[in-house]
Amino acid sequence: MTPLRIGVVGAAGRMGSEVVRAVDAADDLQLVAVVDLGDRLTQLVTARAEVIVDFTTPTAVMDTLAMAIPAGLHCVVGTTGFDEGRYAEVRALLGPDPAVGVVIAANFSVGAVLMMRFAAAAAAYFPSVEIVETHHPSKVDAPSGTAAHTAEVIDEVRRRANLPFPPDATVGDAGARGVAVGAVRVHSQRLVGAVARQQVTFAGPGELLTIEHDSRDRACFMPGVLRAVRCVRDLPGLTVGLDSLLD
Ligand code: NAD
Q1: Neighbours of 104 (CB within 10 A)
Q2: Residue 16 contacts by C-beta under 8 Å, 6 or more apart in sequence?
Q3: For the CA of 60, the nearest atom of ligand 1
Q4: How large is the average pLDDT for residues 139-150?
Q5: pLDDT at 172 over 90
Q6: Whole-prediction pTM value?
Q7: Ligand 1 site-directed mutation target among 56, 136, 141, 198, most atoms within 8 Å of CB
Q8: Does 74 qualify as catalytic in the annotation?
Q9: pLDDT at position 174, please?
């Protein structure tokens, strides 16, 4: 079998360098281009990459997509900071009848995706729920995209189940009660040495249920990234999240 030709953008970064190692170690993939700050994106085309992986910054990733999609390169994007406006920009680049596949996932860890599924399954059964997320201090966004998304999923299930807001008598909390994503309070910690950890705690009369996911090493994102790399050519258009690629 001819190996799939891969280019990595943000290749010198924490995630990008992990992707470079993972692609190098996979027999069915061939690393043909590595791009970082100051390099020309067009070298992805010159190197005849078929799939590119981007772990850069919210600004840089849009330049990557604006070059790659019209050039017919399939894209796997782990860079965070996407919202509905940005997804619309990507759909506009893809056009009405896309030939190119783009997978964008804010979390490529299989465990984190399952943590969200388990949290959704529990969400209708408990009056109280809060989330604590812990990341390294270089992270610029808070709460994390994963925590915000988990809270949205839980909130949606609670609303469909007609659950009221969790009981809370706090008055004038001065920020101590975290940020509210719908009915769900999210608390963010930034600790040296941390990678990414999230704890979702549900509580009802006489019981607590805690669902915890701990990313201890960036290697945990690689099975999800490689799965997306191998599927993206068969998924023309925009796919958001790893969830649908797992089944
Ligand atoms: P990092 O700062 O270590 O790496 C980013 C790299 O991108 C750097 O090497 C930088 O030089 C490079 N870069 C910046 N601008 C560029 C440009 N215009 N062209 C080419 N390269 C450019 O950051 P990181 O920790 O690797 O995270 C990168 C992104 O991935 C962030 O958005 C982060 O939130 C996200 N992330 C996603 C997941 C996931 O599972 N989806 C997991 C961890 C981090």
Answers
A1: 23
A2: 8, 9, 10, 34, 36, 53, 55, 56
A3: 18
A4: 89
A5: no
A6: 0.89
A7: 56
A8: no
A9: 87
| Neighbouring C-beta atoms of residue 28, cutoff 10 Å | 12
- The proportion of the chain whose per-residue pLDDT surpasses 70, expressed as a percent, equals 100
Domains and CATH numbers, the chain: 4-104+219-246 (3.40.50.720), 110-216 (3.30.360.10)
Residue bearing tokens 């970064």: 13
Average model confidence (pLDDT) for the chain?
96
Interval 221-235 mean pLDDT: 97
- Find the mean pLDDT for residues 108-114: 94
Binding-site residues, ligand 1, Cβ < 6 A: 9-10, 12-16, 35-37, 55-57, 60, 78-80, 105-108, 221
* Residue 136 among the catalytic residues: no
